[in-house]
Amino acid sequence: MENKRKMMMFCLLLAAISSPVFTGEWKASVAKNLDALVTSCVVIPCSFTHAKDELPHSRLRGIWHLPAGLDQRIYNEDKTTVLENYRGRTKLLGNLGQGNCTLEMIEIKDHDNGPFCFRIELVETGTETSKIDKFSFVDSCVNFKIITEPPKPTLIPPKKAIQGHPYTITCSVIHTCPSHMPELTWSRGTAEEILEVHREIYQGTWEAQSNLTFITEEKDDHTDITCTAEFFGGRTSTEKLTLYVKRTENHNHIIIPVVVGISTTVIFGGLCFFILWKKYK
Q1: What's the CA gap between 221 and 161, in Å, rounded?
Q2: Can you state the percent helix, strand and coil of the chain, rounding each to 5?
Q3: Phi-psi region of 114 (alpha: psi -120 to 50; beta: other; left: phi over 0)
Q4: If both were cysteines, with which of 17, 61, 65, 135 could 121 make a disulfide (CB 3.0 to 4.6 Å apart)?
């Protein structure tokens, strides 16, 4: 019994010595769940750290794979090792030397659910004879929620539109592909009247925003304004609102007759005064 216990301890010690990687040495941050629009694209935010402050960049290799096995690769520098279904559709956007393992996947298909896991390797080179360090973050994989219809834009108008005053409408749409942002277009307005903003609202989910500003006119009352979002891959969605313009008070119908009346009185009075002055002179 004692010999068996010693043998087990020896095996565990041998495994620890021969394995250059311990779970605590590598840490990763990967988005857990992301929406994925069919035919469009997704960018998976990913970062990793190692207990060592600096790693030799030339020896770092990043692999994305299915949890079924390392041979189920969806991304690798050697494209011949990538599953045919994913070949040409994945690209590493991040710089591994900076601890960035962000991945882009394009032409999303309805079966690209995942999960997808990241693996880092510190490989052997011609001048480096140390063993290969490697670790798969199988506890930090990402799942896709496949959506077949593109998200609709949201329109936020101010409370009132007053004739002759500046009026700003905000159109925004949520997406998960900052490398190919949705394009927001309006049914009216020029480039000088449109301001675009792009921001990450939480890990892996972004908001594209377009602000349209114009001076409202009387003819704008009861007209429709449409915002269209076009996603990478060609899918589009639209949203519209009806503009109601409050007219400014116009007192011309009172002012003009009064001015005309006063002017007529002054002219007529002046003429009479002139005639009388000539007569008595």
Answers
A1: 9
A2: 25, 40, 40
A3: left
A4: 61
**CA 229 – CA 258 distance, rounded (Å):** 53
Q: Which residue has the tokens 């007219």?
A: 247
Give the bridge partners for 147, in sequence order: 37
Whether 145 contacts 79, CB under 8 Å: no
The answer, yes or no, to whether residue 261 has pLDDT greater than 60, is no
Residue 249 has what pLDDT?
59
Phi, psi of 214 (to 5 degrees): -155, 165
Q: CA 205 → CA 116, 164, 177, 194, 210, distances in Å?
A: 17, 38, 8, 23, 17
Residue 82: CB partners within 8 Å, gap ≥ 6? Answer: 73, 74, 75, 76, 90
CA distance 79 to 90: 10
Binning pLDDT at 50, 70 and 90, where does residue 279 land?
A: low
CB 258 within 8 Å of CB 230: no
pLDDT, tens only, 199-243: 999 999 999 999 999 988 888 888 899 999 999 999 999 999 988
Q: What confidence tens digit (pLDDT) does each residue in 89-128 have?
A: 999 998 888 889 999 999 999 999 989 999 888 776 655 5
281: helix, strand or coil: coil
Whether the Cβ atoms of residue 183 and residue 230 lie closer than 8 Å to each other: yes
Overall pTM > 0.85:
no
Rounded CA separation 109/86 (Å): 10
**Between vectors from CA 19 to CA 14 and to CA 25, what angle results, nearest 5°?**
130
> 111-122 burial, b for 16+ CB within 10 Å, e for fewer?
ebebbbbbbbbb
d(CA 106, CA 93): 12
